[in-house]
């Protein structure tokens, strides 16, 4: 009854349909009959040509969607979308023109632009040409890291550029076997963490400290800045000596040892790696120990801040027999190839 009613309504509505639409609906129904007659057993298996026909008819006449019986409407829509993707994949295929840039070259461009904040596309393009890469400057600008503001150096770069012209000094108190107090004076350059000077005295004075500064630096190798604490031993004599050598005196804030972190770190290393394991017999004994440790510190001991190199850079040797030399009586060891 329902089917008969649907047929009657379709007959009544047919005069109001366009001729092309009626022909399209008839073609879709006829093609579905052909697919069903071709079925051997089980479900109907439409071919690619069948899918293409139904998709094209759906594209031109969307109303035929309700006439699809051998497939679900969602399946027909899925076929249409898949065909749309295939069409635009074919439409977007490379047709010659400029070749694409390799992934490694794009990564190198991004690395250069990240590591060199002051470099623009022309500078990076010039470096790439010298490295043998044939690439356009516009491509370099395309793959550079985009920055919101003007290029600027970071604090790490700023401090690294000023470290070679900066030194720090401090005093270290050491008790002896007779409970007397000795004072070790150290000066360290911040650039390579090099221990420039170390000496010992039982009675430190401003004149003695000034003389140590003079002996530590030749007049043509004095640093630009000297960091120190506000101990009274750095009196007018020391300040005048620094001024005469062209060194700007930089005392840090009271009760702020972290502002002289390089010297404090050096003193901590001297204690942990040397003095905490040895009983000092006297001034000459302490001076000999510290001179030996200073040589080990500068020439052998590796530093994390220097990429595990020594302040006086060590050459890498890959051939030869390994020889072990004791330092500080065997407290540390030095390994070399001969």
UniProtKB/TrEMBL annotation:
Chain segments annotated as transmembrane: none
InterPro entries in the cross-refs: Integrase_cat-core (IPR001584), RNaseH-like_sf (IPR012337), RNaseH_sf (IPR036397)
PROSITE patterns per record: INTEGRASE (PS50994)
GO molecular function: nucleic acid binding
SUPFAM superfamilies: Ribonuclease H-like
GO BP terms, alphabetized: DNA integration
Domain Integrase catalytic, first and last residues per copy: 160-319
Protein name: Integrase core domain-containing protein
